[in-house]
């Protein structure tokens, strides 16, 4: 309360008993009161944003929970860190009380956080391995392909090749399940399932691309299940309800496709309405659908066992060796004798023009006999030998019994109008792989509902792997049992026309084919509903992550969080699959998307394992990176085996999404494996760069850009960043840096944020490096010395000319500038100084006709010629021409010198206009640290380029002057011999200023209209007493020019004529 405790000052009021306590105890009492007040205000009065964070050590972390962290006693020593480092007891308490919301139903986090809505009491997850993982995976894996296409695949490919297909696909999913188990047990997997696992392991780009592919796969799976439902309905349950009826035999296939489209669309609308009304109804029916699958499987095995005792009676009729559709006739014979009278049968009428015995019949019908055999001969019949190998063929090929004799005929043109069994599509091995693969998908069902499991990290691996092992056993045994029990012509009869339009797999079932028909119908219905339930939630999870901007609308839904817009989008895409109207055509499409998803699950596990990231600690230990790579290779192989063009389309879609997210998506940091891979690759590259010095051919300007920040932490010269972008064109290293005076704890974050904003605005790609120092000079020195890492250190410094150095109250600006020049020279780094930087073009400007003028007075290693070339690569400077001016020395032939320079530029592959300027000896004072440029050009004709660097470093001991004639040269030498060697500082300054003035006159005369002028930058004086005069020289040298770039080389060659 503003009072100061004293120990009994004269005249003070009588102390209370509390104040009579010893001094240390009173301070402790006062301190405890202050802590109580502060704790109340900090932890109970400050509102939180209620936003869970992945970076938190807590699973359901929100800001308003922080009040519970500071519940310890005697922890005052750590109270200042309690915000960022909660007590261990609080952490353990939060983890022990962890509950996750049920995924896929109406208990959504948004619904709970919404004001004015009664919160739903969430029960702790109670599902175990069997109910939560094993059965859902079984239900998703066993489905439409098993009931509608597996018998046809076995008949077409044969037992051996079908077994190979099953083994390949099941091995692929088993390896993927092992990788998935490792990822799923490496922490909690929230809503999103496989999408969450991939995105958090491989980054937002891969996660978004593969997540959308998985979404498309799930959506097309819904189409396939709906088409399977309609096929069962129209083929086997109510075949007379078709809307379209073919008038001609050849139009039957098209009529069937149209019926599939009409009924499929209606079924999709009905299912979407059920999902929209409430997912809870779908979940309640899930047990019914699962029971249908289990009963159907049991009926198949029971039927196989019964064939050993008594095979079912399903006779098929063969004409010669051709299989016939027997739903239009009862007796498999041409004629029958009743009371010694011969009558023709219905079969006769199908092949002859009339029922009379003297009618003209089909030639093949006349030449071949009719045979009736059993379609299901049984397990012990030996038919397995006939079904060992495949029988592929084109569309329209007749289904024939291999070992049956027949008399062939020449004219088969009318066969299409006869009741034969035909191939409806061309068949080959790779096609069957694509059609079969969807039957092994569904392995993600357990990981998708990890929030419902009592112990997800134990249940997901065990349940998923057991489900795959069980279904693999079912598929493998079914392949062998189908081939051992069913006649080959029946197996190749896709729609069961030879067994009176019964479902082929139903003919094997016991006690009735209707068990399989009804079971498969409800199984397909349930699978379709689950696809329409899961796909919108997957799209909603992707949309809410914000990585794909145009999908954000699909993140919204009803008040309880149901994804309404995502459901509409899913129904629209699902309708595309239904319009295809064929299970055989849709299956390879969704195979591609699922295979791509599984491929990246394996890749994620392999990358994390090889990188050995500290956070990679799966509880599931039975994995290895070789298994993941094998699974990844198998997925890629199956993609191209199934359909190479579908594989390319799927990869193109994923690639486009990846690049879109990379270019437009929100920046996310999820600690993904690709970032770890990048770090390892960067470390390896840096070590390699450090081992070998940079060759001249590989030299490029690696810039350290020195920025100034104003009082509001804004960039003072943003055009410096624009010029950096134009010079670099996105290539090479750029370090944008600034120095602040003060303490790092108070200023570092603000400055870095300001620089990053400016870099983003100017589209400058590079790194930020902010140094906070007790004084600015030391800060700049530290930057020049320590910026960069290993081989990725800067070799050039770019800064703005201190324009107001004359008007400055103190001498710091120009002294800091000169010290920076000296330090870059000592560090053998190039220096670029831009005058009037605010007049330089921005990245949106396009300079028209103009020139970039280079005044090449002394040799700088070729940097002056390289910089205009780099600038002209950018669209801002692309239309500018390059001009090179150089200065002739005393006894040089100007004409020959121009020719030599032109030849030199020709060898350098540079296009530029060359001009040689002759000047009076007193006008130019050469830099003693480098040789005059004219000498270098003259020697090009006589010395090899290999000696160029040696020549450049050779410094003449005497001062070189320029003159017009040889007589003047001799007179000048004689005058020099008679003068003392000592030159007074005043005389030196006068000569330098005179040189600057005269050289400026020539430059302004030649280059005043140029878009940019590049000049050699003279070195600073060795004596610091002449620093201010040095600034005056430079100011005079650049006077009257709009855009000037002073260039000082780093002491090495940066350009070469050799390839």
UniProtKB/TrEMBL annotation:
Membrane-spanning intervals of the chain: 131-151, 163-189, 209-239, 260-279, 285-304, 420-445, 465-491, 565-583, 589-611, 623-647
Topology versus the membrane: Multi-pass membrane protein
Annotated catalysed reactions: K(+)(in) + chloride(in) = K(+)(out) + chloride(out)
GO cellular component: plasma membrane; synapse
Keyword field contains Ion transport: yes
Chief place where the protein resides: membrane
A Pfam family it matches: SLC12
Example GO molecular function: potassium:chloride symporter activity
NCBIfam families referenced in this protein's UniProt entry, alphabetically: 2a30 (TIGR00930)
Protein name: Solute carrier family 12 member 7a
Organism the protein comes from: Hucho hucho
């Amino acid at each position: 309360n503003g009072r100061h405790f004293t120990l009994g000052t004269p005249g003070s009021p009588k102390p209370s008993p509390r104040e009579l306590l010893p001094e240390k105890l009173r301070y402790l009492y006062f301190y405890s009161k202050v802590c109580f007040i502060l704790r109340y205000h900090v932890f109970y009065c400050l509102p939180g944003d209620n936003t869970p964070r992945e970076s938190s050590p807590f699973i359901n972390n929100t800001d308003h929970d922080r009040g519970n962290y500071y519940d310890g006693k005697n922890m005052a020593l750590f109270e200042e860190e309690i915000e960022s480092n909660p007590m261990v007891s609080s952490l353990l308490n939060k983890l022990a009380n962890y509950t996750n919301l049920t995924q896929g139903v109406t208990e959504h986090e948004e619904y709970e956080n919404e004001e004015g809505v009664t919160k739903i009491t969430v029960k702790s997850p109670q599902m175990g391995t069997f109910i939560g993982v094993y059965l859902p995976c079984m239900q998703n894996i066993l489905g439409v392909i098993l009931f509608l296409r597996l018998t046809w695949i076995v008949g077409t490919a044969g037992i051996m090749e079908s077994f190979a297909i099953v083994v390949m696909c099941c091995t692929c999913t088993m390896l993927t399940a092992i990788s998935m188990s490792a990822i799923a047990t490496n922490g909690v997997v929230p809503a999103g399932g496989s999408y969450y696992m991939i995105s958090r392991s491989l980054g937002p780009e891969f996660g978004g691309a593969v997540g959308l592919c998985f979404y498309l796969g799930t959506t097309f799976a819904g189409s396939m299940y709906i088409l399977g439902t309609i096929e069962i309905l129209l083929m086997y349950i109510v075949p007379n309800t078709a809307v379209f009826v073919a008038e001609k035999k050849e139009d039957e296939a098209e009529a069937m496709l149209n019926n599939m489209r009409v009924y499929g669309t209606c079924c999709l609308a009905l299912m979407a309405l059920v999902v929209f009304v409430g997912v809870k109804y779908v979940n309640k029916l899930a047990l019914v659908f699962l029971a249908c699958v289990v009963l159907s499987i049991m009926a198949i095995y029971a039927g196989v066992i019964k064939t050993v005792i008594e095979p079912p009676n399903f006779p098929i009729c063969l004409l010669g060796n051709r299989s016939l559709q027997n739903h239009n006739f009862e007796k498999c014979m041409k004629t029958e004798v009743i009371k010694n009278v011969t009558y023709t049968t219905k079969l006769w009428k199908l092949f002859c023009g009339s029922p009379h015995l003297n009618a003209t019949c089909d030639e093949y019908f006349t030449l071949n006999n009719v045979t009736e055999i059993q379609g299901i001969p049984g397990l012990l019949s030996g038919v397995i030998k006939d079904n060992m190998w495949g029988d592929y063929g084109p569309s329209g090929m007749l289904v024939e019994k291999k070992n049956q004799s027949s008399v062939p005929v020449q004219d088969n043109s009318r066969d299409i109008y006869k009741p034969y069994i035909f191939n409806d599509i061309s068949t080959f091995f790779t096609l069957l792989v694509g059609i079969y693969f969807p039957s092994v998908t569904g392995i993600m069902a357990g990981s998708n509902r990890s929030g419902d499991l009592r112990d997800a990290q134990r249940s997901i691996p065990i349940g998923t792997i057991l489900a795959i092992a069980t279904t693999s056993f079912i598929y493998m045994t079914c392949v062998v049992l189908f081939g051992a029990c069913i006649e080959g012509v029946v197996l190749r009869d896709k729609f069961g026309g030879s067994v009176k339009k019964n479902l082929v797999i139903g003919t094997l079932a016991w006690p009735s084919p209707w068990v399989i028909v009804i079971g498969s119908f409800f199984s397909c219905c349930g699978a379709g509903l689950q696809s329409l339930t899961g796909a919108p939630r997957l799209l909603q999870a992707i949309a809410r992550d914000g990585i794909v901007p145009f999908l954000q609308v699909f993140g919204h839904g009803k008040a309880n969080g149901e994804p309404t817009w995502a459901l509409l989008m899913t129904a629209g895409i699902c309708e595309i699959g239904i319009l295809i109207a064929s299970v055989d055509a849709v299956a390879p499409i969704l195979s591609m998307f699922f295979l791509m998803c599984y491929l990246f699950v394996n890749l994620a596990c392999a990358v994390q394992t090889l990188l050995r990231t500290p956070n990679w600690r799966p509880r599931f230990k039975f994995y290895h990176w070789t298994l993941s790579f094998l699974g990844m290779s198998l997925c890629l192989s199956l993609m191209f085996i199934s359909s190479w063009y579908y594989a390319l389309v799927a990869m193109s879609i994923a690639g486009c999404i990846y690049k879109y997210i990379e270019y437009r998506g929100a920046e996310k940091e999820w600690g993904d494996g690709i970032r770890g891979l990048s770090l390892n690759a960067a470390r390896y590259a840096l070590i390699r760069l450090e081992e070998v010095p940079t060759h001249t051919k590989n030299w490029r300007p690696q810039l350290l850009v020195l920025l100034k920040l104003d009082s509001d932490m804004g960039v003072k010269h943003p055009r410096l960043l624009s010029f950096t972008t134009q010079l670099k064109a996105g290539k090479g290293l750029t370090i944008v840096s600034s120095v602040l005076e003060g303490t790092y704890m108070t200023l570092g974050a603000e400055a870095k944020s300001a620089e990053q904003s400016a870099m983003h605005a100017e589209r400058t790609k590079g790194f930020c490096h902010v140094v906070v120092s007790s004084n600015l000079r030391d800060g700049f020195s530290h930057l020049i010395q320590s910026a960069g890492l290993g081989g990725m250190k800067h070799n050039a410094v770019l800064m703005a000319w201190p324009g107001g150095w004359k008007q400055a109250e103190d001498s710091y600006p120009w002294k800091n500038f000169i010290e920076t020049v000296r330090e870059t020279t000592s560090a053998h780094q190039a220096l670029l100084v831009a005058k009037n930087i605010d007049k330089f073009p921005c990245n949106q400007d396009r300079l028209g006709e103009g020139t970039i003028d280079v005044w090449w007075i002394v040799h700088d290693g070729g940097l002056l010629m390289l910089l205009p070339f780099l600038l002209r690569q950018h669209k801002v400077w692309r239309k500018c021409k390059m001009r090179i001016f150089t200065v002739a020395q005393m006894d040089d032939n100007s004409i020959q010198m121009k020719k030599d320079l032109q030849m030199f530029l020709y060898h350098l592959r540079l296009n530029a206009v060359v001009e040689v300027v002759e000047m009076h000896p007193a006008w130019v004072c050469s830099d003693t640290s480098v040789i005059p440029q004219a000498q270098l050009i003259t020697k090009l004709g006589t010395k090899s380029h290999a000696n160029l660097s040696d020549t450049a470093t050779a410094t003449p001991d005497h001062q070189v002057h320029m003159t017009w004639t040889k007589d003047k040269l001799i007179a000048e030498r004689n005058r020099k011999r008679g003068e003392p060697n000592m030159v007074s500082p005043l005389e030196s300054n006068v000569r330098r200023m005179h040189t600057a003035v005269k050289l400026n006159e020539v430059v302004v005369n030649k280059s005043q209209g140029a878009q940019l002028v590049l000049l050699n930058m003279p070195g600073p004086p060795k004596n610091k007493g002449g620093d201010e005069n040095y600034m005056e020289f430079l100011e005079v040298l650049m006077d009257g020019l709009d855009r000037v770039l002073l260039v000082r080389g780093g002491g090495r060659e940066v350009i070469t004529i050799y390839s």
